[in-house]
UniProtKB/TrEMBL annotation:
Its EC number is 3.4.22.49. It comes from the Eukaryota. This is Putative separase isoform X4. GO terms for molecular function: cysteine-type endopeptidase activity. The keyword Transmembrane does not apply.
Length: 134
C-alpha cells in the first residue's frame, strides 16, 4: 500500500517527491522488519523490498542529486535479487526498472554495480528463454 501511495504522490510531480520518498522509506523499514524475521523470509517480500529500494534510489536522485543514498539503495536491491532463487519471482517490470537504474548509474559515472545488474538481466533473459547472442 505504501509503494502504491508513493507512486501516486510521485505522479503529482515535484510537489509529491518528498512524500514519495517518505512513503518508500517507511515501506522499506516495514519490509526489512518482515524480511528479517526467520519465519517470513518469503520471496514476494524480498522482491517488493528490492523494488522499493530501486524506486527510492531513482526518486532520491531527483530530489538530492548529490546523495550517496541512491548507491546504497541500488546495492541493497541487487543483493536481495541476486540472492538464492530470488530471480524466480521477478516480474517483467523489473527489467524496465533495471534499465533505468543502469542508465542512472552510467550518467553518474558509477560502474561498480554494472556487473551485478547485467548478471541479473541475463538471469531474467534466460528464465524467459530469450536467446543470448555471443
Amino acid at each position: 500500500i505504501l509503494i502504491a501511495k508513493a507512486r501516486e504522490l510521485r505522479a503529482r510531480g515535484v510537489e509529491g517527491l518528498n512524500g514519495c520518498i517518505q512513503c518508500l522509506s517507511e515501506a522499506i523499514s516495514i519490509m526489512n522488519d518482515l524480511y528479517g524475521e526467520a519465519s517470513s523470509r518469503s520471496i514476494p517480500v524480498c522482491h517488493q523490498l528490492a523494488v522499493a529500494y530501486c524506486l527510492r534510489a531513482l526518486c532520491t536522485q531527483e530530489a538530492e542529486p548529490n546523495s550517496k543514498l541512491l548507491f546504497q539503495d541500488i546495492h541493497a536491491a541487487l543483493n536481495l535479487w541476486l540472492g538464492r532463487d530470488q530471480c524466480d519471482m521477478m516480474s517483467e517490470n523489473v527489467l524496465i526498472l533495471l534499465y533505468h537504474v543502469v542508465d542512472l548509474l552510467s550518467m553518474k559515472g558509477y560502474t561498480k554495480l554494472h556487473t551485478d545488474i547485467y548478471e541479473l538481466m541475463i538471469r531474467l533473459f534466460k528464465r524467459k528463454n530469450v536467446p543470448l547472442e555471443k
